[in-house]
Amino acid sequence: MLLAVGKGSGSVEVWAYDRSGCQCDNACVYDAHDCVVTALAWAFDGYCLYSSGQDDHVRCWVLCGSCLCEVPIPSNGPGLRSSNDLPGAFLSCLGVAVSPGNLVLAMVRNTDAEQLDPMYERRVLKAAVQFFWIGGQLNLLPDNSLDVSKDAFLGFPANELVHWKSSILWSLKKFENPEKPLVTWDIIAALLAFKQSIPNFVDEILFKWLSVTYLDSSVSHSLDDVLIRIPQTLLTATSRQLHLLNVICRHVILSQLMADEINSKANIGPTVADMEHSPLWLELLFISERELRERLVGLSFSAFLTHMSHSAKSSIESGNWSPVGVAQMELWITRNHDHIRVQLKELASEVVKAERRFEPMESGDEEQCIHCSALVPFDSPDVAFCCGTETVNGVLEKHKLARCSTSMQVCTTTPSWFCKCCHRWTSKLAPETLFTMPGYGSDVRPPAESPTAGVQSKALCPFCGILLQRLLPDFLPSASPV
Ligand SMILES: [Zn+2]
Ligand SMILES: [Zn+2]
Ligand SMILES: [Zn+2]
């Protein structure tokens, strides 16, 4: 493990820390800057170090053996805009930070007030944040032959594209770790920018990513071939892999479709030009979301059964995740009977038995409209329409209601959370177990010894795995994770 220390003299020291022996060795000292070092940021798992100084320089260092070598920061980037609107009069660099996917470097630079137009610039412009693409910085994966011919990418150096490809694949791989919060705006921004200029390149990256991640690198000939084969493998994919797939599907491939259009399946088909793969991608997204739904329902049923057996012994542990919406989940299973795996149906029939045993008299699982208290039938797990009441004019007025993404129950009060990605509402958070599941496997039960123990601590979307948002008024900027 390396530890970098920036000094007031402008030098950067790198220490090698040995965890086993608890020792620090002073590895190297570098004359990085002329004055005080203001920030240091490691990227790419410590292969790369960015330093900034009061001398307004940002330098990039790459690990060669045990020492650092300075390399230039790449000037090329996808969809690069010229920065004419910036005064170019910076005094010093106050700090640097690397984006979650390690594809973007942000630097804060404060301006030299003397060089600014005193009429307006000097009054408003104290400092600026600049973003640089750094995905072309390093070749991180050993096997990276660029399969598409170089002429396809006019105006972009082929070797930088190789680096971009390896960086994006490296980032996507990093996010398979469920411990790492799923924040993918830089990956999505990079892929979308490349999609504008060199779409073949994006297809190539996705082809490689999908075949390595979901098909164990078994040989496929085309992206379409991969897309057709993946749905059969999703059973063994980790929940995080499914989340990543959903986010990329929605934002990179289907970015022209609105989330609500995707959800209602309304706008499928050839109406949208230039999306040759989209029917396959849409299909993949639906299957992936259904897989997550099955895992969620499975966890809820297991938790319900555990809860039932506990309450029989009258020892309910507080603080455990307790399922809500079991009745709605049963309805969902009935409606999707043909698609749902056998194990889940068996679990469902156990739940029905348990319900009969403990609450033999109870029949009322019907939901009521929060506006007119008419009955709300169960048609879809995402939205519901009440049966409606007649207004004074004799018109039947029906209300559209949101269902909670986790419990499938109609959100009674204002829903607490909103997913920026799939536009679903959530009032009951999903258990943490869902987000760390290594796959459904062929086992009978979801791999959760104590499903009730997984209390959700963070508000995450069960279908996208990203942090949910509290809805804010439009005029407030909100930090979106994707
Ligand atoms: Zn109503
Ligand atoms: Zn999203
Ligand atoms: Zn979502």
From TrEMBL:
This protein's GO CC annotations: transcription factor TFIIIC complex
Protein name according to UniProt: Transducin family protein
Extent of the signal sequence: none
Residue spans of the WD repeats: 30-61
GO MF entry, a single one: histone acetyltransferase activity
Domain of life of the native organism: Eukaryota
GO BP, one annotated term: transcription initiation at RNA polymerase III promoter
UniProt keywords, alphabetically: WD repeat
PROSITE patterns: WD_REPEATS_2
